[in-house]
Design goal:
Layout: H1 3-27, H2 34-43, H3 46-57, H4 67-88, H5 93-101, H6 103-114, H7 121-138, H8 140-144, H9 152-178, H10 181-203, H11 224-249, H12 252-258, H13 262-274, H14 280-303
Length: 304
C-alpha cells in the first residue's frame, strides 16, 4: 500500500472523528454549560497528548524554539474553537462546516500581505468566486431584512471562525519549520485549559454561550454526560494526532482536497440526527466554495 493511500485513510478517519466531536458538542447544547464543554475539549485531551509528546520527544517534550509563534497559535486556535463550538449551538452543523472550510479562500487572500507570496489572476479569481459562495450561504440580505430563519449570531460566528482559522493556518506554516507538532499541540491545549480554568474561577460558567442543566457540579456527580465530556476531550486529542500523522505519509495537496468531504458528511448527519435541511442558497454556495478551494489547491500544485 502506497504512503499516499495510508495518509489518505488516516485523514478520512481524522475527518470522521472531527465531525464526531462537533456532533457531541451540538448534542450537549442545553445539557451542560457551554464553558464546561469547551473546558472538557481541551483539558481531557491533555493526558493522551502528554503521552504522545513524551513518546515522540522524551525529555524534550516541552522544548520550544519560538514562544511568540506558539502563543499566537494558541490564541487563534482558541478563538477559532470558541467560534466553531458556539455556532454549532445556533445553526445547522452542515452550514457551520461549510463556512469553516472556506478558510482556504482567506488564506490565499492574506498570503500576499503576511507571507509575501505572489498570487496570480486565476487564484484571485478563485478567491472572488469563493466569496460569492460564502455570500450565498450566509445570505446577509435576508438577515438584514429579518426574513432569515437562521441565527444571525451563529452565522457570523461560523464566518468569523473561517477568518481566524486562516490566520491560524498561516501561523502553523511558520511553526512547522521550527517546532515539533506534538509539543505544539500539547502546549496549546495546556495553555488553553489554564485560561479557561481561570475564567471559570473569575466569572463562573454561565456568562457566555448556551447554559445547560449542569455547570461546574457535573465534575462532582459522575453520570453519562460527564463520561461524554471525557470522551470529547480524548477524541479531540486523537483528532490532533491523526492530522499530524497523515501529513507524514501523504502529500499535503491530496489531503487538502479530501478535507471538503466534511461538508456533505456534516450535512447528511445534520439531516439524519437533527432534521436540518439546507436551503438552495446554502447548497449552491457550498458547491461554489468547494469548487473555488479546489481551484486554489490546483494552482498551488502547478506552482510547486
Amino acid at each position: 500500500m502506497s504512503s499516499n493511500i495510508i495518509g489518505s485513510l488516516i485523514w478520512i478517519i481524522f475527518i470522521f472523528l472531527s465531525l464526531f466531536t462537533h456532533m457531541i458538542i451540538k448534542s450537549l447544547s442545553g445539557e451542560v454549560d457551554f464553558i464546561i464543554t469547551l473546558f472538557s475539549r481541551f483539558a481531557y485531551s491533555l493526558p493522551i497528548l502528554l503521552i504522545l509528546a513524551y513518546v515522540a520527544r522524551k525529555s524534550l517534550l516541552f522544548q520550544v524554539n519560538n514562544w511568540k509563534n506558539i502563543a499566537l497559535r494558541s490564541f487563534f486556535g482558541f478563538i477559532t474553537m470558541i467560534m466553531v463550538f458556539s455556532s454549532l449551538q445556533l445553526i445547522p452543523i452542515g452550514l457551520t462546516t461549510a463556512l469553516a472550510q472556506s478558510s482556504a479562500i482567506y488564506v490565499t487572500f492574506l498570503s500576499p500581505f503576511i507571507l509575501g507570496e505572489k498570487i496570480g489572476l486565476i487564484r484571485w479569481s478563485a478567491v472572488i468566486f469563493g466569496l460569492i459562495g460564502v455570500f450565498l450561504m450566509i445570505n446577509p440580505i435576508s438577515i438584514i431584512n429579518k426574513t432569515s430563519e437562521l441565527s444571525s449570531l451563529g452565522v457570523y460566528l461560523a464566518f468569523g471562525s473561517a477568518l481566524t482559522h486562516a490566520a491560524l493556518a498561516l501561523i502553523l506554516r511558520r511553526i512547522g519549520k521550527t517546532e515539533h507538532p506534538a509539543t505544539s499541540a500539547l502546549i496549546h491545549n495546556l495553555l488553553t485549559s489554564l485560561v479557561i480554568t481561570l475564567t471559570i474561577i473569575c466569572f463562573g460558567t454561565k456568562f457566555y454561550g448556551k447554559t445547560g442543566d449542569y455547570g461546574i457540579e457535573i465534575f462532582m456527580t459522575p453520570n453519562n454526560i460527564l463520561y461524554t465530556l471525557i470522551a470529547l476531550g480524548m477524541i479531540g486529542s486523537f483528532v490532533q494526532y491523526l492530522m499530524a500523522q497523515s501529513y507524514k505519509y501523504a502529500e499535503a495537496t491530496i489531503l487538502v482536497t479530501l478535507r471538503y468531504l466534511a461538508i456533505p458528511l456534516a450535512t447528511i448527519f445534520g439531516f439524519i440526527i437533527w432534521n436540518e435541511i439546507p436551503t438552495y442558497n446554502q447548497i449552491i454556495g457550498g458547491l461554489v466554495v468547494i469548487a473555488s478551494c479546489l481551484l486554489i489547491t490546483y494552482r498551488e500544485i502547478n506552482k510547486k
